[in-house]
Design a protein that fits this description.
- Helix content is about 40%, strand content about 20%.
- The protein has about 240 residues and is α/β, with parallel strands linked by helices.
- It has two domains: about 5-135, Rossmann fold, CATH 3.40.50; about 145-235, Arc Repressor Mutant, subunit A (Orthogonal Bundle).
- It has a six-stranded mixed sheet with strand order 1-3-2-4-7-8, with helices on both faces.
- A hairpin with a 2-residue loop joins strand 9 and strand 10 (about 150-155).
- It is elongated and about 60 Å long.
């Protein structure tokens, strides 16, 4: 079962709005010291050592972020991520010893918000946690739905529909679409997309942007929605009623 990493008598003294982190890691030598570190940083930490315990804890405790190891004694962390994504929008940072590009792409495709390779420094992971939380708690930049040809993007409802049918988008795909749609008809620089969608403290390669752009183009189905401005960035089709 998931277990609180702080003594029961201390829980009541924590701030009611303290950020809750679920650590899914079966190696106690990693999970327990890291949980204590997170508590010193002001978080509330819960440890789950199996895939089953992780899903129970996520459903019962509604964490604000999940640190998810991919190798678990009763299953694959990627299956846990897939289930979490189907049930909620909780941010997920994957922890793994496998650092190939293919592994990172699979993790991102499943909806992970970041990817940390073992061995890692505690300071780096805490920085990544804070960066992901800043991105995912950021309010939408616009309020009114944006209509571009057959596409409608609703920033507040976080929904996008194409010819009246909702498009299934990951959080990052939606954020990217929203950012492009808000600046429809304009060239948006790669650096600006990275800072607005992945945070100014993004640790990874900008190839992540290209991967997500490819997924977004496939889901939109029409390549003319997004133009690549070589060496600069991307331009989304103009809004309805605006000159191309």
């Amino acid at each position: 079962m998931a277990k609180p990493a702080v003594p029961a008598q201390d829980v009541g003294s924590l701030d009611e709005v303290a950020t809750r982190i679920l650590i899914v890691e079966d190696e106690a030598s990693i999970a327990e010291p890291f949980a204590r570190l997170l508590e010193r940083e002001g978080f509330v930490a819960t440890v789950a050592g199996t895939a089953a315990a992780a899903l129970r804890a996520a459903r019962d405790e509604h964490p604000d972020l999940v640190l998810l190891d991919l190798v678990l004694p009763d299953g694959d962390g990627r299956d846990v991520c897939r289930t979490l994504r189907a049930e909620s929008g909780v941010p997920v940072i994957m922890l793994t010893a496998r650092g190939t590009e293919a592994d990172r792409v699979v993790g991102l495709e499943l909806g992970a918000d970041d990817y940390v390779i073992k061995p890692f420094s505690a300071a780096e992971v805490v920085a990544r946690i804070r960066a992901v939380l800043r991105r995912t708690s950021r309010p939408p930049a616009g309020r009114e739905p944006i209509r571009i040809r057959d596409l409608e993007v609703d920033p507040l409802a976080r929904r996008a529909t194409l010819r009246g049918t909702e498009i299934e988008l990951s959080r990052k795909e939606f954020d990217l679409l929203c950012e492009l749609a808000l600046h429809a008809g304009e060239v948006v620089r790669r650096e600006d997309l990275m800072s607005r969608v992945w945070d100014e403290n993004w640790f990874g390669s900008t190839k992540t942007l290209d991967v997500h752009m490819g997924w977004l183009r496939r889901k939109l189905g029409d390549p003319t929605y997004i133009d690549t401005v070589r060496g600069v960035g991307f331009r989304f089709a103009p809004r309805n009623g605006e000159a191309p």
